[in-house]
Amino acid sequence: MPTALITGITGQDGSYLADFLLGKGYNVVGMVRRTSTVNFHRVQHIQDKITLVPGDLGDQISLIHILEEYKPDEVYNLAAQSFVQTSWNQPVFTGDVTGLGVTRVLDAIRIVDPKIRFYQASSSEMFGKVVEVPQRETTPFYPRSPYGVAKVYGHWITINYRESYDLHATSGILFNHESPRRGLEFVTRKITYHVAQIKLGLINELSLGNLDARRDWGFAGDYVQAMWLMLQQEKPDDYVVATGETHSVEEFLTEAFGYVNLDWRDYVKQDPRFMRPAEVDLLVGDPSKAGRKLGWEPSVTFSELVKMMVKADLDMLRNGQVAM
User: Fold this and answer.
1) 125 is catalytic
2) Residue ranges of the domains in the chain?
3) 141-200 pLDDT tens trace
4) Which residue, among 233, 104, 220, has the nearest Cα to 158 in the 3D structure?
5) Cα Rg of the chain, angstroms
6) Helical H runs in the chain?
7) Which of the following CATH numbers is that of domain 183-216+245-283+300-318: 3.10.20.90, 3.90.25.10, 3.40.50.300, 3.90.180.10?
8) Tens-place pLDDT, residues 261-301
9) Has 119 been annotated as catalytic?
């Protein structure tokens, strides 16, 4: 039975990846930070099937100990300070965790067992102010936030360790991927949760920033499969994972409010507080390499994704549950 270590297992992607790997017969170990608020709600349904161990991307000794004790065959580094807006308020922290944290994991693998296969969660935010459309593996990076800059560092240090130490180290350049497990601070989940609240008469307004920003949105459950496929390849490489379609925040609003038979214009207010200092206008990925080499393609459409998220939030609120 292969063993996989997932950093960031309590996040959206970590929980879906854990589900997927358990289905593949893996022994799943999840690294969790010791924080004042323990938040395991995304992995509650599988908590008796996985092993949760304390560790931190800021503490290399903890990473070495985990690798020595659990001897994983694969390491998926999904932990990060992953919210772009927050990276402007906490740029140094974001750089340390999202950038240098990758180096600490790679170095721990190099020291303990260089045969471990490593996956780095790179991001479409690295493309930022895009220099070509669509963006592919060879597109130059032009990050527009401290988060994007930190992700570029993590991406290039992964390539450097791969080429310098012959590690099976791969980066997945994932475009936006959403789900009912998305955090409330992200615009997609903010919209679907507010739509559900408005439909149930709990609130009557939603404040948002730039409605013209366009993104390539896919389903997180599809994207974790691509991560796994990358580590099954004979040679490590980097892959864009995306749908190849782009939609605006306004289109997301239209789909979400339309699902509950409401017009978003009656409820949405634009608020300058939610505008980024440097906006990323158009991100759309070219996933053809992932399709060609991994045999991967997305299964959930944009419309299905939005409806899935609104329905989940409606069900949650009707059941008297609170969003996490």
Assistant:
1) yes
2) 3-177+217-241, 183-216+245-283+300-318
3) 999 999 999 999 999 999 999 999 999 999 999 999 999 999 998 999 999 999 999 999
4) 104
5) 19
6) 12-23, 60-70, 84-89, 91-94, 101-112, 146-165, 187-199, 220-231, 249-259, 288-289, 302-318
7) 3.90.25.10
8) 999 999 999 987 766 666 666 889 999 999 999 999 999 99
9) no
The catalytically annotated residue of 62, 119, 125, 193 is 125
Catalytic residue among 16, 26, 119, 147: 147
Helix (H, G, I), strand (E, B) or coil at 151: helix
Tokens of 285: 């990925």
Catalytic residue among 15, 87, 123, 171: 123
List, edge to edge, every strand of the sheet that includes 51-54. Answer: 51-54, 27-32, 3-7, 74-77, 117-123, 169-174, 238-241
297 a catalytic residue: no
CA distance 196 to 317: 8
Fold of 3-177+217-241: Rossmann fold (3.40.50)
